[in-house]
Write a structure and sequence with these properties.
The chain is α/β, with parallel strands linked by helices. Helices cover 54% and strands 10% of the residues. Strand 1, helix 7 (116-130) and strand 2 form a beta-alpha-beta unit.
Length: 226
Amino acid sequence: LSNTDEAKDLTIRELAEVTFTSPSSIIRFCRSLGFKGFKDFRQAFLIELSTMNQDSFGTSLTIDKEDSLKTISSKVTYTNIKSLEETLLLLDSNVLEEIVELLLSSKKILLFGIGSSQIVAQDFSLKMLRLSKDCYLNMDVHSQLLLAENSTSEDVAIIYSYSGETKEILDYLDACLNNNTPVIAITRYSQSKLSKKSTYQLYTSASEPLFRYGAMSSRLSQLTIN
């Protein structure tokens, strides 16, 4: 707590050395706090530092009716920047490499998303169209469920959901997993049902409240991962 700037850049072995402990002791410490290990703890630690050091607007970035146009513009811009920076901190390059290989070897890429997340899925679909990769996205929830139910182990599913708790999204997840289809979840950094059950997780910033006035920064974070 007294050396946050130094601690954020240390590996687990380096941290063990400067604290006169051992890597196994640090792992036990992280698990006692509810994390899977040092990597998960470090990700949460970096996000906390980012939030603490950059929150120049105080405790809330919510747009108020008294705000001037300049203040509204500043709040929106700052929220988006913070969301992108936190998303970058959460990206695991090893997981990202595995996902790229999986996408390249898959027979079909199946995309799922509702509301603003569907807009991000459309963006990814257009990118795959340029690469001549078979990619499927249906717009209505019923057709998406049929797509999930007809998936195979040779396909790969990408599910976009900020909350990771939407009922329809979880139905798609279960249908794909029942067919042994690997599922990539692009969702906020939290212990949601989607993140717990999916095969791979690409986390976005969790700076937006679940009940939002507009899915702006979360959509930008998802687009960045695309």
